Amino acid sequence: MRRALDALYDGAAWLAALSMVGLLLMVLLSIVSRQVGFHVPGTDAYAGYLMAAAGFLALAHTLKKGEHIRVTLLLGKLQGRARRAMELWALAAASFLASLFAFYSARLVWQSHLFHDISTSNDATPLWIPQLAMAAGTLILAIAFVDELVMALRGQRSTIDTASRSE
Length: 167
Hints:
By secondary structure, this protein is mainly α. It has helices at 2-36, 43-57, 59-64, 80-114, 128-154. Helix 1 packs antiparallel against helix 5 (128-154). The longest helix is centred in the first third of the chain and has 35 residues, at 2-36. The protein is elongated, with a radius of gyration of 20 Å. Residues 161-167 have low confidence and may be disordered.
């Protein structure tokens, strides 16, 4: 199970990286097309879709690598059982909120598909297509938070002390 979850997080990170490459290509295409006098419609919209995809698909991988910003002001002052309780509470709350975010993101995709919602820009893309990346990213983030919570409950998760990091 651990290998499958890590592969899921890594796969989402690779898709985020590919989205960044696609974003670069869209921006370059837009710049070059303006310089040589032709217009490729939709490049700005697709650049935006790819930027959103990159951000959402990278969330879980970033969490699992300990790179999310953590406010440890209160946590740093706690020790022992109080610190563990606060960690568990924070992970449970984050799991709940990420699950809500994933649910409503998936619901948005479904409603956009149901209502045939399209982009208002000249590309007229059905919006459920770029929204899939957001829904997938939030679902994988919810899975990652639940994974962290389960690991913490089992005592397999080491807390990340951001103050002592040398990066």
